[in-house]
Write a structure and sequence with these properties.
Length: 300
Amino acid sequence: MSGTQYRPFLAVSLLFTIGTLMGLTSNLVKLASGSGWQPMAFLLWSLLGGGLLLLLFAWLRGERPGMSLPQQRYYLASGLLSIAVPNALLFSSIGHVGAGFASMCLAFPPLITYLLALALRMEGLSRIRLLGICIGLAGSLLLALGKINSGDSPMLWVLGALSVPVFLALGNIYRARYWPSGASPLSLAPGMLLGGALLLVPTALLGVDFAPHLGNAKAVGLLAGQMLLFAAVYALFFILQNLAGTVFLSQIGSVAAITGAAIAIGLLGEQGSLSMLLAALCIVGGVLLVAWRSAQEAQA
């Protein structure tokens, strides 16, 4: 198999690997809340630890992050749009809407990303890809309507969870459009995580308690697990974006939606629903259509 033929299979494998790891995050956050962690504190320390692990790995591989002024702006802007804001909303909303619903909200970014990429002429119009994204979006809308109609979660937190994909999509576009020239994927990932962590620090002025829970073995174990998850996800994240493009990358959220909801229902005992099942079927169909079309384009 030639390198060109291997490329789409590698991209799809990375897509499902990263999506599965991201799906685990929502459930770890729920477990962490039960162990005494405040969502924002758990997020800050997870980002800091994950970023430092990535920095060490990049350093050992000789791919040290650049520190020029444009690169520092890139770390902060990508950290704001892709890390700090969406994860703060996600982590904070899970205790109110559930890990399953929060995970399923991650399926929204593809449509927003694709529409932004079309508007900015970063992607060409593909009817098959657009159909796949619309099918996935239809599933996401079914999920949202089902949650709103159930009345078991505050509307403010439902809207907060639903806004997460908007920032993820903006982050996808920003990273692709302003990718520093000549920078490797691994050299950019630590800066984005550490930039996101840095941007969370001012929330301490709003009363957020960032004290770590080091006396509880379970709490420490969950934090270590989330640090490793962040390090693995974002190391692979940049590699996939460089390999397959922004719109394909945005499908990660759809995979995370399915795996996260499945774990929440199967292992954490959350209640499923018909709307969630129908949403999952639509999202899987949409992902497969987009992935198939992207594989065709890569082989052309």
